[in-house]
Structure prediction request, 821 residues.
Amino acid sequence: MNYLLNDLLGTVTGCPNRGRKSRYAAKNRGFRLRLGPAVLVVILLVGFVVCPARAQPPPATNDWLGDTVEDVFNRVWTPRSRFTDGPQVRQAFRPVVAEVRRATVQIRSKGRRIAYGGIVGPDGWVLTKASLLHGELTVRLLSGKEYEARLVGMDRKYDLAMLKIDTTGLATLDLSGLTSLDLPGLTSIDLSGTKPSRSDLLVSTKGTTEIDEKKIATNSLRAGDWVATPGLGRDPAAIGVVSVAPRKIERRRGILGIRMEIHNKATRGVKIAQVFDGTGAAEAGIQAGDLLVAIDETSVANTVEVREVMKAYNPGDQIAVTVTRDKKRLRLNAILTGQVKDFRNRAQYQNNLGGKLSKRRFGFPMALQHDTVLKPNDCGGPLVDLDGRVVGFNIARSGRTESYALPTAVVKERLYDLMSGRLAPKPLSKEDKESRTGSQDD
Amino acid sequence: MYSIPYLPYNSFVREVAATLLWVFLLAWGPVGATAGPGATVGEPLPLSEPLQVMLKHQRPESVADLRLLQEQVRQVVKIVRPVTVSVELDDSAGSGVIISADGLVLTAGHVSALPNREVWLRFPDNTLVQAISLGVNHRFDSGLLRILADPPTEEGWPFVPIATVPVKPGDWVVAVGQPNGFVTDRAPPVRLGRVLHLRGEAIITDATLVGGDSGGPLMNLRGEVVGIHSRIGERITNNYHVAASAYQKEWERLLAGRMTGTPDGEERSDWRPQIGLAFRFQEGACLVTQVFPDSAAAEAGVQVGDVLHSFAGETISDAANLARLAARQEAFNRVPLELEREGKEQSVELWLGRTTRDFPGIGSPEMFSRKSSARRRSR
Prediction:
């Protein structure tokens, strides 16, 4: 200790050798004579370490430059322990996700994770978010083993997909969990059926509602309750709280990006007059002059029929568009987009601040909203409460303040159809070998 | 320290009692004193012993800790959701929170923007009530509203109290509001966050906000309002709230309906205060010839034919004098006006409005300088 101090003193006094000459002689003399500078140095050192944690960054200004400067300071000076979803808080969730992560998987493609998934059947049945899937898929388990995955079922309405991997004896998710979730202070919804029941739990007077606490079901999830998204690690991938109890999420118009000829002279199709830049149609390779004959499996003969068919789709959905060009029939895959990105629209701009949003984030029959910060590729896997019960499957990052999860009861109802083959994607034909659905059937 | 008679001889006890007395008086502070007749400060929620222990460490270290926090958050959500309203005006929408039984509502400055405007408040159950905007402070981005409709019960409007102890970095906070506007059957979404920084009158937390949340409450675990949502930055952890202390500092001005600073995008010099009447001089008396509808004069009940004697305590003696007196005031000041109607003396209070500088009629003070009055005479 004294040796180091003397080195320090040597540096402070500008006599670098002085300190080293005689440890013991310098110890007494150096310490006394150079107490002042030593104390000064110590104070300065302490100051550098302690003060940044407490110093106030320059006063906020309202302009963007001010924000950038603030930003830099925040990045440097906010200790990670202070965040709601910082590593320290996440550690507390380890027992919460310990069980469920054994049945959680990563869906990977081209060496990167594109989604999370959950094992719903011991013989290799994996549930995930459909619109994230493209290319050759593999599933990585907790053990580290990776398997090739086949897409065996796709439910467009819920944006769910069922994958099958070739293995048995897997740990599966327990989906028996919750049977009731309370709605915004007004009703309690019984999810074993689908109709919300006006319960006698609540008395509503103007502006206030009173809940008979004793009558609330014990296994209910309320707004403000913790939810965790397991990954393959010991800590959850992300944590947050329930924001709003399950409700219907309205769909938005999915836009293909074509303008059809109004006075359509073709008999068995619709002539495409224009294809707009930057839309799904343009990217799919649809060209002006093509004759649109079918959308997915439905043939369309006129503009009215096209509009009718399109009503079922959401932004982010992928559709197979069949067109006739130069007497050849082409089947092209297009991903529908949402409304045109208008950054003059302040609300839209703000909603996109802070992170990417899922393309398919509208139109869910029921979704639980929570405030977990997710990236689009963090979706598809299970969401658990503090008791480790699966309360839903993360289905979308829908805004700056919100993520959606399909409630467990709702997902359970789709499992049979997804596994049975009834919702199997159509096998690829030669023309659409470049299809982005990763089906490997032929 | 302070002399308090009749307490036990022990000076330590006396000092403790004195301190507690001061704390009690300070805590009762602005909200209790000026919240209007019939208002009582709402009770803050209790914190259980184990939770207090956990909060000393600031963050949960076990599932039991998480559960303690969860229980408390449930309590906060229960009391704050029913009093979180969507604030709707002609040209803006945001959120607000009721903080007194007589219907005072806190919101963000940029939501109400100006005092004395008609505001509609929508409760989570879609009930609509009318309110009026009182004071606005554009430097802090704070605003106050008052509900005009009658409260639902004798006890007044349900409300949540404002915190008296400020937050510190690391504190847990609950944010509610109406992001992206009111949605039927969607209760105010709940977000949980922690205070990251304090910067003057701004609190920065990682409780995410988005457009529509402005004016909504940031609550501490005791169910008290510690901040009002204001704006966001690019990063998801940049969420700015106006500290409750900003409201308490300016409470008198907010309650009086005064505006501090200028709304975004406006130039202060483009506006001037307006009484809203026209007059002429008749035998040395200032006679009102017109009262503009929806103006400060109209609201105060000034009528055509009234004779104006004094404005803001100063006697009105000639045309220039009234215009100059008015021009010297700030828009949204509350100014006394003495007038005479049918022989009877009356006193009204004008809540001054404002108008653009190019509004015809009474001009700016510059008009009455020597140079311009020469121009005027020549007309």
About this structure: The two ends of chain B are 72 Å apart (CA to CA).
